[in-house]
Design a protein that fits this description.
Layout lengths: L1 H13 L4 E6 L5 H11 L5 E8 L2 E8 L6 H16 L14 H18 L5
Antiparallel strand pairs: 1-3, 2-3
Helix pairs in contact: 1-2, 3-4
Length: 122
């Protein structure tokens, strides 16, 4: 199964798109699957559902279409820092459904915290 999961994660890394994986009657290996998917996807994979259908387990994992380059994430963080300097609110984040939604507020918070520690921060 590692080879198949590895192929899926490698394909996802090359061409980001939403991928959903359903595991039926596989509860004994879910810990390994969860760890493998999280590690292989850079932490982007997550378990959506873990339940039972009758007496059988059902687990659904998602690899969302969030793959961003480091430059795109850094640009979003820079935008968040700039927004703080422009006295905008943290809730003004323009991104809704991708990894920039996390990077932008991180940059905003970083600028805010830096201003508390270093008065020279612009």
């Amino acid at each position: 199964m590692e080879i198949v999961l590895g192929n899926i994660v490698n394909s996802y890394a090359k061409t980001s798109r939403p991928i959903y994986l359903l595991f039926y009657r596989a509860s004994s290996i879910m810990r390994q699957v969860n760890g493998f998917l999280r590690t292989g996807s850079g932490g982007r994979a997550h378990r959506l559902i873990s339940t039972n259908l009758g007496s059988r387990s059902l687990n659904i994992f998602a690899l969302p279409d969030l793959f961003m380059t480091d430059n795109q994430l850094e640009r979003a963080a820079d935008e968040g820092r700039a927004a703080w300097r422009q006295q905008r609110a943290r809730s003004d984040c323009p991104y809704h459904d991708d990894a920039r939604r996390e990077a932008w507020p991180d940059g905003f918070d970083e600028a805010f915290l830096a201003s508390l520690v270093d008065e020279r921060y612009p």
